[in-house]
Design brief:
Length: 435
Amino acid sequence: MTDTTDFAALVDEEGGRISRRIYADPQVYDAEQENLFRRAWCFLAHESEVPNPGDYVERQLASERILVIHGKDGVIRAFLNSCRHRGMRLCRADKGNATFLRCPYHGWSYSSEGELISVFAEELYHQDNLDKANLGLIPLTQVQSYKGFIFGSWSAETPALDDYLGNMRFYLDMLVGRTPGGVEVVGPPQCWEVHTNWKFATDNFTGDNFHLYTAHGSIAELGMLPPDPMSLSFGNLIQAHKGHVLHIVPGPPIPQAQYFGVPMELRPLIEGTLSPQQAALVKDHAFCVGTVFPNLSFMQVMVQGDLHSPPTPFLSFRIWQPTGPTTTKVWSWLMVEKEASPEYRKATYEAYVRTFGPSGIFEQDDMENWEECTRMNIGAVAQRYNLHHGMALHVPADRDFPGPGNAWPGSYGERTQICFYGEWKRWLTMEEPWV
Ligand code: FES
Ligand code: FE
């Protein structure tokens, strides 16, 4: 599949049909790497992960390992984590702090700003054959932050991050910019590998609220979900901007379920920080799940970590990093308001680790489904038949929804998935995604 026009046939936005090939075909994977992940803005790290000079974390962008490092000059940069001598992986830890970075192979050393500062046996090189000024670490083409979230892109043509996010900023602010201090990560991210195509994960995080009572049926049977399967069908599906989508769902009519369930002491801060329009949406909702195109998903949910604990909110962001057509590496962060009390930090952490992450009761259900879906879509016969994404596509938009973008009533539907796949198709076919 070298002709990019072929990709257009894989997604039928009008009818809501998706080719199984997008979840397993190596040629689709290669095109995604080139046309999407080497061009789009991709999330790398949160500034609170590298608060001090010399702090670094290793991440991945497309197929390459990326070093995000806080320089001595206070600037956070991102480089290919590869030595300029033989290409050795320079930092081999997931995170750390270093006054300089010494290559483990032959000892070339770099500053925290990425300059090559010393070379083993430097006197043996002819002075014209070691231009240290041009042998620094290879920087990402663009690095920009939004509310502490550091994104990178390998393309000089990708527009400014603010423009890329567009109206999604309105909704992101409701999650990460709702108090004066904003949010910070709690501990290092959980990181694991799933044998799934990455789009089964984003598919689940773009609006699949209707899997709860089947995929997580055993949790529902234990009484840890509301008894009526339609009770979570309210709310809205939202296309904030291009492929950036989310759904937002009200909870039961009790004060504890307002403001996404965050503690009472944080609520005046929310009212004082957000616009009245944003604050009203936060007040009226308990759940918000979505995806920043292409592969940064988030969930603001209230869950019971066990049979006896009350529903407790948590906010998590995660990257679905494709590592092959049918494998995905996940990084998942818990985030909390900087103003949060120690008691709330402990409670939200426990709710998160008991329900999501590789050992979480919800995440295990999801991963099993994504892995089996991936396996079942590899076969040549299976790939002759499209998949069905047609739920509630006929429902007209909710013109009165008090937020930007396009909104549709109800949270059970596949409209937001179709918005995501439509954008995916435009990136793969190299149509201008910005117009
Ligand atoms: Fe890094 Fe040789 S590969 S010093
Ligand atoms: Fe789930």
